[in-house]
Structures are given as structure tokens and as C-alpha cells.
Specification:
The complex is a heterodimer.
Chain A lengths: L2 H14 L6 H12 L7 H9 L11 H5 L7 E2 L6 E2 L14 H16 L5 H11 L3
Antiparallel strand pairs in A: 1-2
Helix pairs in contact in A: 2-6, 3-6
Chain B lengths: L1 H28 L9 H8 L3 H8 L13 H8 L14 H14 L7 H10 L12 H7 L19 H4 L14 E2 L3 E2 L3
Helix pairs in contact in B: 1-2, 4-5
The chains are: A mainly alpha, B mainly alpha.
Chain lengths: ~130, ~190
């Protein structure tokens, strides 16, 4: 292949890596499904969003930092740093980067629930958040 | 893939040089602290690992200038991200490696600027501190500030919130003259 074309493709891939587009949530849901989970329910995701889990520092929920409304700006429970809205309606680039979604689900399920979320829980949450 | 390596290396090399030039140029413009060396913060801002560092670590808190802790502290921090002051801050292996190298290159060390050098001196030979606020250098600089301005001040809440009073903290600017304590204004010591 022409080296200039190769370089252009490589650059496009690099630049595009952060904004994978609308299909990312569908891809993840398909993955969870092939892991045995599903169907996914936005209502179950909405309930999980607000559900409180006990911890030595007091009850924790997704909404502790993100607020009850995913379209609102949140605040980190410890540091107070503002957290931009998670809802794609408020911030279109949300839920468009697979790596980001997986990283934050892994970290924040451990903080909030004290364990990793199941494929079903992650699917329900994404099904809920994509409608917000 | 091999054919890609050279053009990509050149691309990133040029981007890196541009970033260094921009950061140094910018730094010179607003540096009015009497010419004291601040080479370390400038070097950290121009470092190719800086963008990843601010993006990952700065998601939850101020991206603390790495010169405020010695390399051994950062190494310990990066080894314990699954319990990061009570939070889970795990990173994938590649990201963690890039950030670990960035921190090591820009940590407190002799000859790396005023704060870096004094932090290094204050922590030399000790168990590496995990908190910037736990170094004798930090304590010596802040011990006269009353609780009403920090822990009892809802706009500050803790000494961990550097940028509440040092508005240029993320750039490594901790000049006394530019301190503004919310609700109190300048700090005159």
C-alpha cells in the first residue's frame, strides 16, 4: 500500500479512537447478551441508579455523585470536583467510547456496590442511560 | 505495521516539539515570581504523558503537579490504585505504565525547581508519603492558616483542594502573592 495512504488511515484510526459513535452501547449490550444476560430493561437500570448500598462511610448509590438526574452535573463525593452530566441528551459525547464506559463501570460499581456489576446490571444501566 | 512506525514516530515527534515550544512560551509570559526556577512544572506540562495524566487522574481531582511528591511516593500510589484513598481508581496496564513513567520523570528531585527540590529534601530518607499534605515542606508552608479558612470553609473544605486558593495549582503555580482564599482574599504572612 502507498505509504501516504497508510499514514492517513493510521491517523484517522488514532483520531477516531476516542469517538466510536452511537453503536458502542449496542456492541456492549450484544457482548453482555452473549455472556448470558438480557433482555435489558431501562426501568431496572433507573432503579439501580437510585438504589442505595451500605458502606462504612454511609449509603452509596450512583446518584450519590451523579445526582438523581443523569442529565444534571454531579459532584465527586470526596473531592467535590464537578462531574459533567452522563446523559447523552445533555452531553452528546457520552456513551460513545467503549473503553471509557468499561473503565467507569468497573471502578464505580466497586465503589458503589462493593463489587463488580453483573452483565445484567451493566446492560440495564446502559439501557437506562442511553434514554436520558 | 513496520512501515507505519517511522511516519508515526515523526508525527508524534513533531507534535511533541510543538507542545514543548507552546508550553515554554506560555510559561514565560505569566511567570512574574522574580525569576525563581520553575523548570519542573514547565517540563511536566510539556511532557508527552501530561495529557493522559490530567485526563485520567484529573477526572476526579486536581491533577496534582507531580513535583509535589518524590518518585517513590508516586510509585507506591500507582501500586495501590484499587484502594486510592478509599476510591477505586484502577487503570488498564498500558495507561498505568504511561502515567507511572510520566510521574517518575517529573517527581520531586534536586535541581527540578523550588517546590520540587524542597519537597525532595523534606522527604529524603523517610517512608514515602502518600499525601502531599503530609510532607514537612507542605506543613511548614501551611501551619499558620486557621481551620476557619480551610476545613470550616465550605468553599475549600480541605488542604487537598489546592486550587481553591492557589488558582494556578494545576500549572504548578503556588506563588504566595497569587493566593486568594475564598471568602478571605489574599494571604499575608
Amino acid at each position: 500500500m502507498n505509504i501516504r495512504v497508510t499514514r492517513a488511515i493510521a491517523l484517522a484510526l488514532l483520531l477516531g479512537a476516542g469517538t466510536a459513535g452511537a453503536g458502542v452501547v449496542d456492541e456492549l449490550l450484544a457482548d453482555y447478551q452473549s455472556a448470558g444476560a438480557g433482555p435489558f430493561d431501562p426501568k431496572a437500570g433507573a432503579a439501580l441508579w437510585l438504589q442505595e448500598h451500605p458502606s462504612p462511610e454511609g449509603p452509596r448509590a450512583c446518584s450519590t455523585c451523579h445526582t438523581a438526574d443523569p442529565a444534571a452535573e454531579g459532584r465527586h463525593a470526596t473531592t467535590g470536583k464537578p462531574i459533567a452530566p452522563l446523559a447523552p441528551s445533555a452531553r452528546p459525547e457520552r456513551l460513545s467510547d467503549r473503553k471509557e464506559i468499561e473503565k467507569w463501570l468497573a471502578r464505580n460499581c466497586k465503589w458503589t456496590l462493593g463489587r463488580e456489576c453483573s452483565a445484567q446490571e451493566k446492560g440495564d444501566l446502559l439501557a437506562f442511560l442511553r434514554t436520558q | 505495521m513496520k512501515r507505519l512506525i517511522l511516519p508515526l514516530t515523526l508525527l508524534f515527534g513533531i507534535a511533541g516539539l510543538l507542545a514543548v515550544g507552546l508550553a515554554l512560551g506560555d510559561h514565560d509570559d505569566d511567570d512574574d515570581d522574580g525569576g525563581r526556577s520553575k523548570s519542573s512544572p514547565a517540563a511536566a506540562l510539556a511532557d508527552p504523558g501530561y495529557a493522559l495524566y490530567t485526563n485520567e487522574c484529573g477526572g476526579c481531582h486536581l491533577a496534582y503537579p507531580p513535583a509535589l511528591l518524590p518518585a517513590a511516593s508516586w510509585e507506591a500510589m500507582m501500586g495501590g490504585l484499587s484502594d486510592h484513598f478509599g476510591d477505586n481508581a484502577e487503570l488498564d496496564a498500558d495507561t498505568a505504565a504511561t502515567i507511572r513513567d510520566f510521574l517518575a520523570r517529573n517527581a520531586a528531585a534536586p535541581g527540578a525547581g523550588k517546590h520540587a527540590e524542597r519537597t525532595w529534601r523534606a522527604t529524603r530518607g523517610l517512608e514515602p508519603p502518600l499525601r502531599i499534605t503530609a510532607t514537612d515542606y507542605f506543613r511548614g508552608k501551611h501551619h499558620e492558616i486557621p481551620a476557619k479558612m480551610i476545613s470550616d470553609n465550605p468553599e475549600v473544605r480541605s488542604f487537598s483542594q489546592c486550587a481553591a486558593c492557589h488558582q494556578g495549582a494545576e500549572r504548578g503555580d503556588f506563588d504566595d502573592d497569587r493566593v486568594r482564599i475564598p471568602g478571605y482574599g489574599r494571604w499575608d504572612d
